[in-house]
Amino acid sequence: MSGVSVLLVDDHPIVREGYRRLLERQPGFRVVGEADSAATAYEAYRKFSPDVVVMDLQLAGGAGGLEAVRHIRQWDKKARILVVTMHDAAAYALKAFEAGASGFVTKGGEAVELVRAVETVARGGRALGDDIAREIAAERLAEGRSPLDDLGPRETEILRLVASGRTTDEIARALNLSAKTVQNYHYQIKSKMGARTDAHLVWLAIGAGLVGAERSV
């Protein structure tokens, strides 16, 4: 494969540098841009029109990777986005695909897995890391149901921000929504998940792997 242009989206410069070195050691790969937030990812995508976006889910500046995936795909239905994240919850992977991602691998995987996933996504295929594939298979075989199953990608992103301690006004600014709209989403999310209080909602988000307990403060 030759001439695959890649946009790196991660809020840690060291991680982006590691990805750049890894990919540019492979024949035919070139990193054309970098971004550290959902907003700059969208701007960089419009500027560089990369073949593949390598996207983290936990980003700086409020809105996360799910929102960035959704926003980019709204602008370009053919965008090919590979999510590379520390999150290994099956429900999170499924939400990423629902938002428009073409692949999902975890940062705990081998370097060769990331390269293979970028190649697969660049060809127009679907990529899924071995560890998350096992997680999804185990959950489905056990007929398990995640609290996130009834939420759409935007609802999932708002839940993540709520569980991370963001205020209604902060969420509204991050997602370019009105405070009233965020409040309506918040109510709908609580209703769908059967949460009695906001504390219960945060507890459900943690249990689903959407955020870690250390982030919900």
From TrEMBL:
Residues 5-122 form the Response regulatory domain. Residues 144-209 form the HTH luxR-type domain. One of its GO terms (molecular function) is DNA binding. Gene3D superfamilies: 3.40.50.2300, Winged helix-like DNA-binding domain superfamily/Winged helix DNA-binding domain (1.10.10.10). It comes from the Bacteria. CDD domains: LuxR_C_like (cd06170), REC_NarL-like (cd17535). The keyword Phosphoprotein applies. It holds the Pfam family Response_reg. The keyword Flavoprotein does not apply. The modification 4-aspartylphosphate is found at D56. This is DNA-binding response regulator. It comes from Methylosinus sporium. The lineage of its organism: Bacteria, Pseudomonadati, Pseudomonadota, Alphaproteobacteria, Hyphomicrobiales.
